[in-house]
Amino acid sequence: MVKTRSLLCKLSFVVCLMSFQISASQTQLTEQFFQGALIVGKTAPENKVTLNGKPLKVSKNGDYALGFSRDEKNNSELVITSPNGDVEKRLLKPLKREYNIQRVEGISKKIMNPNKKANVRVGQDNKKIKAARKIDSNLTAFAQGFIAPIDGIITGVYGSQRYYNGVPKTPHYGLDYAGDKGDPVKAPADGVVLMYVPDMFYSGGTMIIDHGHGVSSTFLHLSDAYVKVGDKVNQGQLVAAVGASGRATGPHLDWRINWFNMRLDPALVLKLEPLK
After folding, report:
1. In CATH, what number does 101-269 get?
2. How many angstroms separate the CA atoms of 32 and 146, rounded?
3. Which terminus of the chain has fewer Cβ atoms in its 10 Å neighbourhood, N or C?
4. Residues with Cβ < 8 Å from 195, sequence gap 6 or more?
5. Could you tell me the end-to-end alpha-carbon distance of the chain, in angstroms, rounded to an integer?
6. Which CATH number fits domain 2-92: 2.40.230, 3.10.110, 2.60.40, 1.10.357?
7. pLDDT tens-digit series, residues 114-148
8. Domain boundaries defined on the chain
9. Is the four-CA dihedral 82, 56, 269, 67 of positive or negative sign?
């Protein structure tokens, strides 16, 4: 086994990008072994790949995807099995990250506890989002690299979290980009539009684009959409407009990346380079 490691630049944390090659099954794996990372692999198309005993989809070009959640602490076992029975195993160890935590006191109970009508609407919104994120298509755009969807200053990062009156709120799972209403939003990778809803309770105009194998982009708080559900989009194509819809304090783009229902860090995704 040959291992190559290269040190990437430091943002709020150090990202190590490693790749390894298994001679028996000719498998490559680009690893960012940090919590919140998308991991892309390439193997012989005829090989079978499992993660903790669950099969992963392998494309006709040998591409596959997996990820670590924000707070993943357990090791995972990746197993590659060739048609002749050769087995290679890799123990994937998630590296812990430090997130930006803020504590705010004196928040009114009215803000802390939304009314029942709002909760019902949020539940309906979440069902639509979960249905879209269950899609396991044969697209392989996730393996071709990503670009930023907007040219803007990053104002919010993945993993940050606030505690109101000592109660932890849901962590922030995206990258926030500053922008003006109407600013163009581009597809970060090729894909197919899975969902667009202009008026979700929290996220307002919300679009989900499928990049294949359970990997998807979600855009929140949009003011408009220039594509519709089912449309194929190309990397860099104009798909939507920045807005301040939903529960937003001002116009900005919140971009999120998922592997099925697992929320990943877009900042790490932008550092992935296609395997060859």
Report:
1. 2.70.70.10
2. 15
3. C
4. 128, 129, 132, 206, 207, 208, 229
5. 17
6. 2.60.40
7. 678 888 888 999 999 999 999 999 999 999 999 99
8. 2-92, 101-269
9. negative
